[in-house]
C-alpha cells in the first residue's frame, strides 16, 4: 500500500512538493527543515552568493499586497537566513543593504504588518515605543479576553452569573465551567456582591 504523501514548502526555494507524511512528521518532530530536493539541502547548508542575491532568490512578490515575502526559513514569523555563521532576520538584512547600518536601539518595523515582508518601501525605523504604539494602534496586541493574563473570559463570567444566582456551590461552578476552584471562588464572590447590591435574594 503506498504511503500517504502531503504537500510541503521547501525551506530553501519555497516551492511546494509532495513528500511522505511519515518522513515529514519525523523531520518536524526533531525540529528539522523541509526541502524539495537534495540540491536545496546543499544550497541551504552551504549558501552561495551575496546577501542581496540570497534575498532576491529567497523572496517572492505578492501582487495583492505589494509585499515581497520571504519564502524560506522563518523564526517567530520573521524571515531568517544565516550570514557569516549568524542567523539574521531577513527584513533587517534588506533594510541594511538598502539604507545602511541600523542605529543602536532602533527597530526595523513593518508598515504592512507582514513579518515575512522584506520590501524596503514597507519598512521603517522606530524605537521600541514606536513599535509598541504601532502594534496597539493597529490592534495587533493581545487585549481583553485575548490577553494571556486573563484568567477567565467575559463569556465564562457571563455563564457564571446564573449559576451563582441559582445557589449552587463554588466547587460545582468550577467543575461545570472547567476552571480552577480558587479562580471560581474569586469571581463568585464578586458576582454575589453585585447581586446583593441589586437585592437578589439568592446572593444572601
Give your account of this protein's structure:
- It contains eight helices and nine strands.
- It has about 200 residues and is α+β, with helices and mostly antiparallel strands.
- The chain folds into three domains: about 1-45, no CATH class; about 50-140, Homing Intron 3 (I-Ppo) Encoded Endonuclease, Chain A (Alpha-Beta Complex); about 145-195.
- The strands form four sheets. It has a three-stranded antiparallel sheet. The chain has a two-stranded antiparallel ribbon with strand order 1-2. It has a two-stranded antiparallel ribbon with strand order 3-4.
- β1 and β2 (about 15-20) form a beta hairpin.
- Strand content range: 15-25%
- Termini gap: 68 Å
The DSSP helix count reads 8
Supply Rg: 26 Å
Taking pLDDT < 50 over at least 5 consecutive residues as the criterion, the unreliable ranges are 141-150
Element-by-element helix/strand order: EEHHHEEEEEHEEHHHH
The CATH topology label of the largest domain is Homing Intron 3 (I-Ppo) Encoded Endonuclease, Chain A
Q: For the residues shown, what is the average pLDDT? A: 80
Mind telling me the CATH class of the largest domain? Alpha Beta
- What is the number of independent domains? 3
The secondary structure category is alpha+beta
**What is the general shape?**
flat
CATH architecture label name of the largest domain: Alpha-Beta Complex
> In this structure, how is the largest beta sheet organized?
3 strands, antiparallel
Q: How many E-type strands?
A: 9
What is the strand arrangement across the widest sheet?
A: 5-6-7
